[in-house]
Amino acid sequence: MRIVVDLNRCQGYAQCVFLAPEVFQLSGAEALTYEPNPDDARRLQVQRAAAACPVQAILIDRLNGAERSVTS
Amino acid sequence: MAEETAWQQALRKASRANPYPFYEELRKTPVARQPDGSYVVSTYRELVQLLHDPRVSSDPRKRPGAIPGADPLEANIIEMDPPEHDVDRRRMTRHFGPPERPHMIADLEPKIRRIFAGLLDDMKGKTRIDVVDEFAFPGPVTVICKVLGVPLESIPRFHGWIETALDGLDFGPEASDPEQQRRLAAVPAAVVEMRQFLADLFDQYRKQPGPGMLSGMAHDNGPEGRLPQESLVNNAMLMLFAGHETTVNLIAHSVLSLLRHPDQLEKLRRRPELIVPGVEELLRFESSVQLWHSRSALEDIEIAGTTIPAGSTIFLCYGSANRDPERFENPDKLDLERPNNEHVGYSQGIHYCFGAPLARLEVQTAVSEFFRRVENPRLVEDPPPYRHNQIFRGPRHLWVDIDGIRD
Amino acid sequence: MTMPATVAELVRTFKANGRIVIVGASLAGLRAAEALREEGFHGSLTIIGDEPYEPYDRPPLSKQVLKGWVPADHTKLPRLRELDAQWRLGVAATGLDRATRQVRLADGEQVPYDRLLIATGTRARQWPNRTEAALEGVYTLRSRDDAARLQQALVARPARVLIIGAGFIGSEMASVCRELDIPVTVAERGSAPLVGALGGVIGKIATEMQRDHGVDLRCGVGVSSLEGDAGGHVRRARLSDGSTVEADVVVASLGSIRNVEWLEGSGLAAGFWGVGCDAGGRAFDINGVVTDTVYVAGDVARAPHVLYEYQFLAMEHWDNAVFGAEIAAHNMVNLEPDYYPHLLLPGFWSGQFGVNIKSVGVPPFGDEIVFTQGSVKERRFAAAYGRRGRIVAAVTFDHGRWLEYYARLIEQSAPFPPPPPGWDRPDDMNPIPADFPEPGVPTAIPDVVLTGHDPNERRAEFRPRRR
Ligand SMILES: Cc1cc2nc3c(=O)[nH]c(=O)nc-3n(C[C@H](O)[C@H](O)[C@H](O)COP(=O)(O)OP(=O)(O)OC[C@H]3O[C@@H](n4cnc5c(N)ncnc54)[C@H](O)[C@@H]3O)c2cc1C
Ligand code: HEM
Ligand code: HEM
Ligand code: SF4
User: How many CB atoms lie within 10 A of CB B163?
Assistant: First the structure.
């Protein structure tokens, strides 16, 4: 799956880190880093994290399959 | 006698089950001065703005005329300002979550599941249950005791103290009623006992380390040092308190709100994964912490066409901001799939709820298990009786008739 | 027939049958395409990108990717909706003919459009000496492939990495090297790291931060030349102060170059700082007249900003790409009076040395700075920038939760210095000169640049001096 965190919005509440520690991590007290394309098996965890984010900074892929494969 | 303001009316016991019409009135003046000189903030934009304003203090001791030592909870993080607040909160977080313990809460899931499953098992054979006393209360209390390392046997004792404290506080026009005055008078003794209970517990853990946060905090040697004894006790009190009174209310309210909105319940039954965004919406819809009282302006603050003079008490009304139509479309509609649900049920800014990850896990587990296993739940009384307290707003009892408990 | 009916009719017809071409298949291009569909555009949509990959996110490249936690190909951007677009990836646009409304591709094909969005972003400025740049072990960082190569080089545990340029990306790379416990030297021609973006006062704090983490930081020096061994691998750098640095990995982090070459001869106001456009994303032509068919978004755009005396602002920021793309998309399928303006308050973040650095506004627009909250010593603080008695920007180190307070003050052009906080006051709250380098003093180019009032500026190409 694919996600992106709008780190301008993010205020480092770390709610996502509690819920999906393999996907989201803090570097120091406040700087969030994350795995942008986590394994699909983590979808539920990541959805929990996105729902919990107080400033709704986590964007999740809303497309299942189909258009994903880009051709030139 | 002057007519009561919308705020005063909202705080009356009679409004507890439904304060929302008064909030609607209140929001017409986003920052409204009250007869006692305090200011009530009821709109989303202004409330969030003040949560990020460094001229606002959370420390009641900084108000003019504050009596030193009057508030028994002083020196806990919820009533402190930076830099001390930040230091103490980090000292606590080391024992609760990231960066030091990122897995601690997530790892509790099986335990939490077992606790709520056990409570549902106990209801087998019954046709009528009290969701508060049999489910919403015992679950979170057990969990917070385990997390902190407070012996389960002591639950009845500290629950009594906390009830006494909760019943004693009143910010509304009924505060001066003799009955309420009598309740208030009972508060200090309860606090003293609770404080002593926790101080003893820390003494015990200092001699003999045990499981849970309290022992960890008492023995900590982190980069910023250990919390002093006073702060240990006060923050333990805060966590014990905030750690279940709020969660109890959210579980009870979630059951109530879903039974009142069969369409949403039906949706949840069809798509159980909706519990995740659903609990955020349920908190927006009925906020467990309706208001917060401990803030004040340290400078004159201009906001929404009003100037809050330095020294004024500021009430932040989370329950109203979460129903602000300027921020939430159809705010009085429960929508488990509400997009961009940036509610303030856990606040925002530096006092953002410390326990939110734990609360979420508990409520998601409790509510989904409840509706998965309880057969044909029906409200007996609507509205149910409410607790006295205005901050921690929730049903005192929630009677529900049921056909049985599934496995 | 009334006029509004005509406009509505035009809009409806265009949304149904129009042809839109987007050049640049990255953040701005993707978000614009999604926004176009969201706006109800059902016509044909073509996205042209010279990279062979579908859109990916760049900020992780200098952070979690370089560190080795996240593979470079794990940066694909999430898709927010179906696009039903024709993707032409791996082929560059090489020309624009506005008279016939066609984009020319490197493979010779001509793609016709009714509306065009230019989202070609920037590329890394290469080490100016070509022979030296060709040495093995010399890198730049802009793309996914760059990041993968550089990360591989770090896995091999070089004896020392030399980073030339201490802007945000250079500093982030230095931070990663230290996290991986790889010795690193940073050479910066300016007086301190981040000095172009945040000024000398903050630069001094960044200096201490780097040194505390064991970075061999050398400021006020340039790299004069790179030397390789017999195998053609870089081994050594000579600095302008006569010293040498032995390094087997060298990263040139010299800022970026706008990808505007393909627009040569198109008659658009395209130049060193990008393509000039109005606040609605509509491109200016070379005479300063706004076009109706060509739009610009993202790193390659420069537009006047109401908060900054309507000077043209060039912003190399993530949120500028997202928001600018959405605005341009809206305006591409609407007509006056339904245009939206791009009024974003610039925002930026950077994670380095365990500290979250965030800013709002345009710091280099200010000439004074005041610390407003927290402790500089502990590197947890907020500071505000002012100009002529108004607050114009703010920066925080691990104090991001307070940033929106300053953002609001900036939006209101509130007085500078701002009112003091009620608690946690810094030791010294007097405004001091922010100490930005004088224009013309060489340093890493900041990633928000005030580029003057002329939509068609034609400044001389910036060339690092060679010795
Ligand atoms: C390492 C790194 C770290 C960063 N960190 C941060 C950060 O922490 N915070 C922040 O706010 N921002 C950061 N940024 C900046 C951010 O990534 C950019 O602002 C953003 O990528 C801009 O998006 P864009 O779509 O406008 O341009 P780009 O991402 O540059 O995309 C332009 C695309 O167009 C393609 N193209 C160019 N010319 C042609 C042509 N003629 N024909 C076809 N295609 C063409 C390019 O190959 C590219 O794919 C960082 C950037 C980098 C490189
Ligand atoms: C649904 C459940 C909960 C809700 C709705 C809730 C809500 C809140 C709110 C609104 C605040 C901010 C008050 C303010 O300053 O304005 C807060 C703070 C706090 N909460 Fe919770 N809470 C919940 C559960 C918990 C739990 C389970 C804990 C257990 C540890 C907890 C501990 C705290 C603490 C310690 C603070 C103070 C944080 C600080 O000041 O930095 N809460 N909570
Ligand atoms: C063990 C639990 C608690 C006890 C015994 C207790 C007791 C008291 C007492 C005696 C007062 C003084 C009353 C007055 O000023 O008239 C007080 C003030 C207050 N306490 Fe507590 N309290 C407890 C927990 C809490 C908690 C957990 C909160 C909120 C989370 C809280 C909120 C308040 C508030 C709002 C006031 C009023 C402050 C003011 O008016 O300035 N209390 N409390
Ligand atoms: S929960 Fe949201 S605000 Fe908090 S760290 Fe994660 S992304 Fe940032």
Answer: 15
